């Protein structure tokens, strides 16, 4: 159980880093036509789509989907960590 929880926590951390990487890519937009970049952006955007809240701010819009996705991932990490701790006790 502990190794499963540890593996899941590592995978969730990697997902958090992937979401943060997507946010940084949205700021700098290095090579939007590259197939790897497009695939990466599509994958992360598909995960963030259910949480998408767009706030219009003049000529631009603020998308809060990645922020809410990060909060959900953090909550799942907390649940997994607590479940693993309860299993040990």
Task: Describe the structure in brief.
By secondary structure, this protein is mainly α.
What does this protein look like?
There is one protein chain. This protein is mainly α. The chain has one domain. The chain has 3 helices and 2 strands. A two-stranded antiparallel sheet has the order 1-2. Helix 1 crosses helix 2 and helix 1 packs antiparallel against helix 3. It is elongated.
**Total count of helical runs of at least 4 residues:** 3
Gyration radius over CA: 16 Å
As a percent range, the share of helical residues equals over 70%
Counting structural domains, the number is: 1
- Biggest beta-sheet profile: 2 strands, antiparallel
Strand coverage percent: 5-15%
Give the structural class: mainly alpha
Mean pLDDT: 90
Total number of strands: 2
Shape from CA axes? Answer: elongated
Low-pLDDT runs of 5+ residues are none
Q: How far is the first residue's CA from the last residue's CA?
A: 13 Å
Q: H/E element string?
A: HHEEH
Strand order of the largest sheet: 1-2
Q: Can you tag this structure with a few keywords?
A:
single chain; 89 residues; two-stranded antiparallel ribbon; 3 helices; 9% strand; CCB3/YggT
Q: What is the strand and helix layout of this fold?
A:
Layout lengths: L1 H27 L6 H14 L5 E4 L2 E4 L1 H24 L1
GO cellular component, one term: membrane
Keywords: Membrane, Transmembrane, Transmembrane helix
Protein name: YggT family protein
């Amino acid at each position: 159980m502990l190794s499963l929880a540890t593996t899941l926590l590592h995978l969730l951390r990697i997902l958090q880093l992937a979401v943060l990487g997507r946010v940084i890519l949205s700021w700098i937009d290095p090579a939007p036509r590259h197939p790897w970049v497009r695939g990466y952006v599509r994958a992360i955007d598909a995960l963030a789509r259910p949480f998408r809240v767009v706030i219009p701010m003049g000529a631009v819009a603020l998308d809060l989907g990645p922020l809410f996705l990060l909060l959900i991932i953090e909550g799942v990490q907390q649940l997994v960590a607590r479940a693993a701790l309860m299993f040990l006790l």
